[in-house]
């Protein structure tokens, strides 16, 4: 077999491998050809975290991978909890910055304070493809954090326990989204869902 044929075969194998990789849903990994996570540190308590999917990755999967990455980083930095904060609030970018480059996106919406879930951004890809991306800043903290207002956040250990098998099985192991907590000055944390309004309970005696 001459050199040109070997080189042609090697090129075919490389192209086949690339097509196979791109043709699969993004799995939990550092950012690369088919997506993945990437992050950068803003200050000692604040990180910018992203998870990029591809055309084969569902929004739900991207969101779970994003939360899992946030929890991993929170523990790696020596913290127990994390909350999602708008980039303008964390100081990562100015409030008037161009937050996303895709056309037709409401930039004012991105400047509003969202607590849960993180904002999911869709960025245009090649050939008009659309890929799901979860991207936000997170603020990490511990039980001794100084609180001046109610804060919605997640317990990193809880997130890792609930989403670990999902993330490391390429989303093949089912998992529910971890539930958020509400942290309030001078009070124990409570489940966020416990603070939601509910219909009045009827009395078994009076029937009302």
Task: Give a structural overview.
Strands 1, 2, 3, 4, 5, 6, 7 and 8 form an eight-stranded antiparallel β-sheet that branches. It contains five helices and eight strands; from the N terminus they run αββαβααβββαββ. Helix 2 packs across helix 5 (156-167). The protein has one domain. With 208 residues, it is an alpha+beta fold.
- Uncertain residue ranges: 8-22, 94-128
Biggest β-sheet: count, sense, barrel?
8 strands, antiparallel
Structural class by SSE content: alpha+beta
Radius of gyration over C-alpha positions, nearest whole angstrom = 21 Å
Strand content: 15-25%
Number of contiguous helices = 5
The helical percent reads 25-40%
Q: Give the overall pLDDT as a whole number.
A: 77
Distance between the termini: 88 Å
Topology record:
Layout: H1 3-22, E1 36-41, E2 46-52, H2 59-76, E3 81-85, H3 87-90, H4 107-110, E4 120-124, E5 130-141, E6 151-155, H5 156-167, E7 181-184, E8 187-191
Helix pairs in contact: 2-5
Keywords:
single chain, 208 residues, alpha+beta, eight-stranded antiparallel beta sheet, globular
Task: Write a brief structural summary.
It is built from five helices and eight strands. A hairpin with a 4-residue loop joins β1 and β2.
